[in-house]
UniProtKB/TrEMBL annotation, chains C, D:
Organism: Bythopirellula polymerisocia
Xref: SUPFAM superfamilies: PLP-dependent transferases
Protein name, entry field: Probable glycine dehydrogenase (decarboxylating) subunit 1
Matching Pfam families: GDC-P
Location of the Glycine cleavage system P-protein N-terminal domain: 7-443
InterPro entries: GcvPA (IPR023010), GDC-P_N (IPR049315), GDC_P (IPR020581), PyrdxlP-dep_Trfase (IPR015424), PyrdxlP-dep_Trfase_major (IPR015421), PyrdxlP-dep_Trfase_small (IPR015422)
CDD domains: GDC-P (cd00613)
Highest taxon listed in the record's lineage: Bacteria
Catalysed reactions, semicolon-separated: N(6)-[(R)-lipoyl]-L-lysyl-[glycine-cleavage complex H protein] + glycine + H(+) = N(6)-[(R)-S(8)-aminomethyldihydrolipoyl]-L-lysyl-[glycine-cleavage complex H protein] + CO2
Gene (UniProt): gcvPA
Transmembrane residue ranges: none
Amino acid sequence: RDTQLLCELSRPGRRAARLPACDVPERDIADLLPTEATASSPPALPEVTEPQIVRHFVNLSTMNMSVDTHFYPLGSCTMKYNPKRNERAAAMPGFADLHPCQPEETIQGMLALLYEMQEYFQEISGLPACSLQPAAGAHGELTALLVAAAYFKDLGENRSKVLVPDNAHGTNPASAAMAGYRSITVKTTSDGFVDMADLASKLDDEVAVMMITNPSTLGLFEPHMREIADQVHARGGLIYLDGANMNAILGITRPGDWGADMQHYNPHKTFSGPHGGGGPGAGPICVIEKLAPYLPTPIVRKEDSLYALDFNLPKTIGRVRSFFGNVGVLVRAYAYIRTHGPDGLREVSENAVLNANYLLSRVKHILPVPQGNRCMHEFVASANTLKKDKGITAMDIAKRLLDYGFHAPTVYFPLTVPEAMMCEPTESESKETLDAFAEVLFRITEEDAELLHDAPHSTAVSRPDEVRAARQPVLTWAALSEAN
Amino acid sequence: RDTQLLCELSRPGRRAARLPACDVPERDIADLLPTEATASSPPALPEVTEPQIVRHFVNLSTMNMSVDTHFYPLGSCTMKYNPKRNERAAAMPGFADLHPCQPEETIQGMLALLYEMQEYFQEISGLPACSLQPAAGAHGELTALLVAAAYFKDLGENRSKVLVPDNAHGTNPASAAMAGYRSITVKTTSDGFVDMADLASKLDDEVAVMMITNPSTLGLFEPHMREIADQVHARGGLIYLDGANMNAILGITRPGDWGADMQHYNPHKTFSGPHGGGGPGAGPICVIEKLAPYLPTPIVRKEDSLYALDFNLPKTIGRVRSFFGNVGVLVRAYAYIRTHGPDGLREVSENAVLNANYLLSRVKHILPVPQGNRCMHEFVASANTLKKDKGITAMDIAKRLLDYGFHAPTVYFPLTVPEAMMCEPTESESKETLDAFAEVLFRITEEDAELLHDAPHSTAVSRPDEVRAARQPVLTWAALSEAN
Amino acid sequence: MPYHYNTPEDKQAMLSAIGAESVDVLFDSIPAELKLGRRLDLPPALSELELDQHLRELASRNTPAGEAVCFLGAGSYDHFIPAVVDTIGSRSEFYTSYTPYQAEASQGNLQVMFEYQSLITELTGLDVSNASLYDGASAAAEAVLMAISATGRHGKVIVPESLHPEYRATIATYLENLATEVVTIPTSGGVVDPEILSEAVDEETAAVVLQQPNFFGCVEDAAEVNRITKKAGALLIAVFDPMSLGVLKRPGDYGANIAVAEGHTLGSPMAYGGPYLGIMACEKSLVRRMPGRIAGQTVDRRGNTCFVLTMQTREQHIRREKATSNVCTNQGLFALRATVYLAQLGPQGLRETASLCLQKSRYAAEQLCQHERFSLAFEEPTFKEFVIRDRENRVDDLLKSALDRGYLAGLPLGRWYPELADCFLVAVTEKRTKAEIDGLVSTLTKASERVSVPATV
Amino acid sequence: MPYHYNTPEDKQAMLSAIGAESVDVLFDSIPAELKLGRRLDLPPALSELELDQHLRELASRNTPAGEAVCFLGAGSYDHFIPAVVDTIGSRSEFYTSYTPYQAEASQGNLQVMFEYQSLITELTGLDVSNASLYDGASAAAEAVLMAISATGRHGKVIVPESLHPEYRATIATYLENLATEVVTIPTSGGVVDPEILSEAVDEETAAVVLQQPNFFGCVEDAAEVNRITKKAGALLIAVFDPMSLGVLKRPGDYGANIAVAEGHTLGSPMAYGGPYLGIMACEKSLVRRMPGRIAGQTVDRRGNTCFVLTMQTREQHIRREKATSNVCTNQGLFALRATVYLAQLGPQGLRETASLCLQKSRYAAEQLCQHERFSLAFEEPTFKEFVIRDRENRVDDLLKSALDRGYLAGLPLGRWYPELADCFLVAVTEKRTKAEIDGLVSTLTKASERVSVPATV
């Protein structure tokens, strides 16, 4: 099998694409462009043929695990089935081949879809305004925090802090920092909930926003949610809901109804847009009415049966990227929502939670789940006892699972749980698969520790040296030939 | 990984597709259909979900070798690269979504393409008439023999024999039999050519057609081709050219110019239509002028700039299938021919022959090639010496090649070469790949015979019991549960 | 050139290894006088971009279903293809592989063949299935050859006029040079007349070929046809519509010995007629006379369950002229698509699809017949298509006028049935909405008015 | 429901194992008063067939490039996408996998990232590349943040008006709550004025952002801009068009410290603006300040070469608020598509594509300017787009009229540049044929005549 690099497949004179002959009168490039601006030769890209390209990349693809080939219970990432009808939808020329600057009369169908998406996101979150512009969840966080900042600036309030619980995604504090805020960590209790005393001690008039992930990264619904919101609101602050875990609560409960003022969605998680090996996703946000004037522009409006782009928000933060948004991802999410309907979306969450609880019930005897017997869409087990008793770490288990044909859960996150293994089966897996996974997990814990330290055994690669990679970075072909 | 059967994934109540509600007034089925004709329940198909279906089939796919993943030098099958642009072409709704009975004014683009295909096939073969109807190479053979039979019947001649060299594809005699002819085998010499004396002894006025594969299945151009054709013609017979090996001679020499009266094409071989795991292909035929009146109908005609279907051939043999032909395959072949042009097609053959001769030069020291030092697009090596010396068979080598990531050549065909290994690299492979293949072949011949008898070692399956499969056939899930 | 690797340096190195001075030398075995000596007269090469532009231009001169509303049937139907079918069908490992000669390198294809065979036997109610043939018509012809061989009766086969005319033509072509006669029997009221059949079938008859539902869309009395056929010791060959089996009895259930079908409707496009999928299933006793590839389950040297091509002694590469048939591949990719499609539908999906075809087509027929100009040509119950008689006998004008309004409204039958020159065949699949059906009715009605006007002038 | 497995029996068994009476019980941790207590107000579920019909209807209300002839540019372009890109991009193993947290299960994605980074460094002439960002505009904003951090200069960044207005807007939004000011400097004749720049840039300046070719399509004097920038100790951030590098100098060659680009043009569709591909490369010294994923080569425990995510200490899951950025994924699938696209083009293909853009766009500009109504707004040389001034100052009418004739003829600039309200931006890619360009010219000329008539009435 081909694991050479493209540059190793290259031979001078090979080529794949051929371009048409120039059908307009051709002029010497020197007559068209100043010599000092032009390159004498094109960049030294590899020279390969089309059959090489295809075989190279098809073979590379088979070196990945993926949802279409394996159970992929990567916690917090919602690796659910990506419906093929969504891909067909996004590829329709009527959507895929639209230029972002086309006149509105030539994109009425596109705008109708995007308008509906605004409406759907608002309804699902219980928040009345929406911007589809952000390109990813973290981008949505940043955008919402910038919206909040603009709001406070408009109010004349000078708030500098953002509160973030210690079990939040790392993007929360990073987004706060990028938006110019100081990120303040709020502790969580051993139960995994916000430590109300710690919150009280940190909540002051400097707090602009409290970011909260609910259900949390532990897969638990925050019992003090309403109280937290009330307290933050009482000090003039806003609640930001990290929407990464919406898959647990569709049609069951809505962030807007608990006091969230802003939230983002991860349509590539909750609404089945594919993860693409790490993107692209999208990060639309919804906000309460009083924050709506600050949203990025444009917003899609509907008047009578005509759709239009509204750029006229005088208080807008501006824009956080070029053009409208990650429309291709939104088309997929639209297809998903339309084929599920209100009952179907609720069933998504019911089955995601049922599957997670079932897996929890099968796993907790093997790997303790510190935060109790129940969960929402995911749970965090711990290999801590196993580590103490047998020297087997979460990493060992994760690697060994690959040998058995399962992708590993998310490990070592959240940081609040030692030897964490965060499992999110999603609704699109069967009881048989969950049973098989639990059985393998049990079998692994019975295996010899030495065997596990060297796992995986069946993969082409095993335990890469990450320290070396970071200390002696080899990031390109050029660096490779230098290194050798 | 999933190698269960679909029926094993089934659980009552699971389903993938959902259909729209009926939007017309619904009536009781009993009112619409006689009870004795209706089934009380639908066939017991498996009940599975869409994610199961996708994972099942994606994982099954990875259990195949294929051109896009491996070198696949399967002789006589021309496993060349299947251009992705061809697939895009065939999927265009303007071609894929045409009903075969649409009025001609609604398919002028389709008919233009098919008309051009007739013209291209005629030009490439040097034969002036064409039918695109046959669905596969063997179907083309049958069709052409039926055309020949109609021609002789029309002449009032009662000819009963078809001559077939002993190294021909098995479909030749089978097609002759299906067309109502007696198949007579003509010997070939140890050089691999038609034994002219044997031909002379078998050629009489009863011979309707001599079928010949040229270049032959040994990858050799028949030196007596013209003489053979003259002799057959002198006795009133016709020459049928098995076009399986056209990849060797595009733009270099034409069957019509050597005296062939009929030939089929394998567009899925020569013109890069994919092989689809064993079909669909297509089997268009070209014939000389005097046979044109007997071709199946319809034929595409052009008048001025309008295209029309001509059903009006009074002497036609009728039809050999429903509708026009394997149009989807022809669209791919059209894309291939148009992107190559006359020079490109010639280069295809030049490179196919160059690659085959180069591989021959690397292999002949390892595995003797009985029929000499040169070849056209393929050659047949023999493991006969190796078998005598070390007990290593062609099958052993074939199986062991799989361990090294190469598909095997065609083995044990043609029957005239003992321990035959028929290698056809095609033009779309690189010198590096041919070198690697030759090196592996050499390494294998040095390996221990016992190791080879048990090969392959790296595949999930090794040396299936074919005798058991044939003696105790288990052909369905139902038979499986009976067998267990 | 796009798909070649050989750089000038490569070529030189390769020629050296071969011991040839030039590539031309490699063609020395072809006598000079047989060489073409000129370029092929073909258009110059296009780049991929130009190809794309050219093909779009060609495609734009066609009116596919989707641009026009398609009510055409007659063996090719505008059924819906779920996206999963395309996803699986476009996997490189499926479509760029070949016949599984090396079982170890082809377990994916082999298991798919086995699953396909299993689904087809379930669908047909028969014991065994091959791994597919070219299309429905050639499968019917192969079935006739099987029947002749199995019964040893070389006298005749009987085909009613309600069998698809192109299927009858194909059978006739296949038998033209063999001893067996194809006897076509007329139908009564659009279906087989038991009396006529009883008279035609005799001890020389190898088989009766019954299409159910038949070419006119009508549901035949299959049990009765089977009874008559069997009484004479002949075999019953059923030509069925796979989709109909969501509501109709299976061929095996009414006694068919061999069942064949056009299977493109199971997940493959209409594609102007091909490639298609020839389905064939039969009783166990006939399996060794069956043409085409067959996959079977067995065990490997390690004792693991696996799949192989089997019963190859029927085939050409071993039996040559004594093979059961000259068919040497299956329609692997389309059998795969059918397998995925049937898995996607499941029993309920098949039933619902069939039911939608039934309900919608009957609704369409009723609505059309409300107009005095139109009537059903036959009174028999239909499944998803039906024959409409135009009382004004101006079918061509009518359909042309409908086409101008965006409807592929039906297929005129005069070409095959002169006595039905005033009739056309209308098919309604699950894809057709009420709005489209109402549109068709309204269009044909209006067309009728428009067409009628000059007639009265 | 389509994607759920759990049959009633499964559910019961699972609930028993959990020890819960019903699924509802599993949601008991949500306080009752926070529950929705009604159905979501969303339209009812569609079947796949209905979805398809609905989406086709929506899509039919759009006019994509392909139906109209697209001369729109401004950062999104109608370039050709070879079929191989779609083939590879639709491989399940690529698009249904995620960020390679488990390197052993992700060598495919990791090697692609490494190859992508290698190609981008080759393309830009810079040392290192990340594995991609969201889009060109946000990549430009991230580059500005990098420059501020690297130089320690928090005073200002300079953006000429010839930088894409949406990129300027994005940078401004990102910096709004930080200390650094965004200083926009006017251009002269469509390009940066060295004198104005020299005056603006000072020791408080972190960076100058130069778009090359710029928003107006003009080729800037990048060497001069770099000289001025470097003289003040600021960093040069280049915003480039990947396609232009077939003929133009690379950012690294004219001194850029960081180069960013919109990369959707490398094999991904326009898709009404996203998802797109943010390209970013920089000098080696800046690598640890770079946002986004980076793949590196290393060896595994067996000593085999392999790939991992590396330099993760820059990232949020470790550094949290001290991370270089909050970006935590790349645009993996589009980076893959760009990798395949660049491999498919190769150096010659890139050069030819660039050359076609150059030749065709210059031809279009010349042809348009033959008409007295039109002139080029700027005299500087252009690469693939250019600004046309309508001497009649009726841009909207003109473009509307062209649209009616099937041309997306250009982008009016008044929205961003009031002083260019009589101007529109025209882009010409390799896909546009001479016939289409001539059609555009003829249409705008005719439109001009038609539009002019009522003006004189």
